[in-house]
Amino acid sequence: MKKVVKVMLMAAMAALLLAAAACSSNGGGNNAGNNAGDNAGTNAGAADAGGNAADDAAKPELKRLDIWQNEDYNAYPVAKMLEEKTGYKVQYDMLPQDKSAEKLNLIMSSGEPYDLVTTYSDLALYSDYAQKGALVDLLPLIDKYGPNIKASIKQASIDALKVDGKLYAIPTSVTYPINSSILIRTDWLDKLGLKMPTTTDELTAVLKAFKDRDPGGNGDQDVPLTIRGDLPMLDNIVGAFGMPNSWNDVGGQLVPRVLDPAYTDYITYMADLYKQGLLDKQFVVNKDATAKEKFSSGKAGAIIVHWADIPTISDALAKSAPDAKFAFVPALKGPGGKAGFAANAGFDRLTFVPKAAKHPEDAVKWINASLDPATFKDLAIGEEGKHFKMENGAYTPILPIFNDERNLANNYMAGTDETNYPLYWQARVRKSPVMFEAFDFLNNKQPDDVKIPNKLGLAPYMPEYAKNNLQLESMVGDYTIKLIAGAEPLSGLEAFRAKYKAAGEEASAKEINDWYATVK
Predict the structure, then answer these.
(1) Helix, strand, or coil here: 250?
(2) What is the pTM assigned to this prediction?
(3) Burial of 463 (0-12, 13-18, 19+ CB in 10 A)
(4) DSSP class of residue 378?
(5) By the 8 A CB rule, do 34 and 137 touch?
(6) Is the pLDDT of residue 47 over 60?
């Protein structure tokens, strides 16, 4: 299966190059982004950014590809609101929940004419698309049609996304530092007379008790810790070994995890969990939904999830195990006394305009219209008195209508008002008390010294890193999972490291550390 996926990705990238070459042969060249923007939107009339009669009379329907969500984008109330406020009808499609990057590669290489594509931030993938000529340069279009974009997106964000002086995406910046940790059944702890683990050794002891003493009443069906199959680096646990981020500071240099001296200790720990049956024996084939179902059905005692997943999990557990209680595990200390969560820096999502777009001008006009201050506030939190209220100086949701009509609103954003959205966002995180409790615990009640910022979060475009990182991350992910599951011996690590370095790591590391020396 792995070979098939690799062949598909190679074919996709080859097709992408051919598509880029075709754009160039049709007169695009280095100015292809500008030409696409100038020519493809002619049916929108000669309107300025503010819109006029000619512009309003000829707005085409746009086609947008977005991240996965559990409701139809086109039927959700926000879609209608944005249509009314912007004057554009948008047809929304979404990427699959699993293997979304592979699907995106296939879509991009096929030349399917999406006007807008929004994905979770992957700067390496974004830069790769940009370098291959697959995206429209947005700067000329923003200059012409984007006053709200300029007012909303900070210059530092724009500069961090420039590739060879051009901008190919609108960023949605992160608004909180910590995403995930180990969610554990605290009623199982109570039943067994155990305390919340604070070290990796204590976590092992707790998981062993879950396996041996059957607190869930499932017999040998109990799963101490479950995870999805594409999660080689487990948040919180990997931080306990001093490697919370993909690249970490080791002696003043940024080093990728697989070359970090602590990598072998992490693998040894995780492989031991697997051998003892404390890590889900089926984790390699688990999809995201599979792992969550095991926990929410009452069969698993722990899982690693994002705090935003808590309401769905809580609702499901209330049906399967009404007395269930759970909480996030705080930052665990590892054998060397280290602890840490990867702390977000940079961008949560990116929205770009593919070269295959039929309406690049109108795509930028739509983004600009969505970032009109009043429209963006309505998009983010709705109408005051209907969807939200001010309470103790904070934006607070009015339930249940906020959940019904703005719960998924962030998925419709293409960029944010970077000054005001962190304030509006307070309402979003308060829409569910159980979710706010989880968010508050991870982001406000963990000491600052365990929030380890991603050093590369706002790094500028680096050609070697952009070219190599996607392949290198895939190599390490596949290899780490095999090591944990016992499919590869740890004795082969040095041979793998040599192969990894030769695949582009050495060039990437030099580039990264030349930059890091100027900012650390």
Answers:
(1) strand
(2) 0.71
(3) middle
(4) H
(5) yes
(6) no
Nearest partner of 371 among 412, 408, 327, 340, judged by Cα: 412
Burial of 42 (0-12, 13-18, 19+ CB in 10 A): exposed
Give which of 457, 187, 496, 214 is closest to 342, Cα–Cα.
457
Spatial separation of the C-alpha atoms in residues 312 and 310, rounded to whole Å: 6
* pLDDT at residue 50, as a whole number: 41
Contacts of 518 (CB under 8 A, 6+ apart): none
Rounded Cα gap, residues 496 and 493, in angstroms:
5
- Give the span between the Cα atoms of 366 and 361, in whole angstroms: 9
pLDDT for 336-356, tens place per residue? Answer: 999 999 998 889 999 999 999
Distance of CA 465 to the CA centre of its chain: 19
pLDDT at 38 over 80: no
pLDDT tens, position by position, 122-144: 877 888 899 899 999 999 999 99
- Mind listing the pLDDT tens digit for each residue in 83-92? 999 999 999 9
Q: What tokens appear for 91 in the block?
A: 């047809």
What is the token pair recorded at 103? 């699907």
Cβ neighbors of 183 (< 8 A, separation 6 or more) are 295, 302, 303, 304, 305, 310, 313, 326, 327, 328, 329, 438
Please return the burial class of 220, using the count of CB atoms within 10 Å of its CB with bins 0-12, 13-18 and 19+.
Answer: exposed
Residue 245 three-state SS: coil
pLDDT at residue 57, as a whole number: 61
Q: Report how far residue 146's alpha carbon sits from residue 108's, in angstroms, rounded to the nearest whole number.
A: 25
What is the distance between the alpha carbons of residues 102 and 353, in angstroms, rounded to a whole number? 18
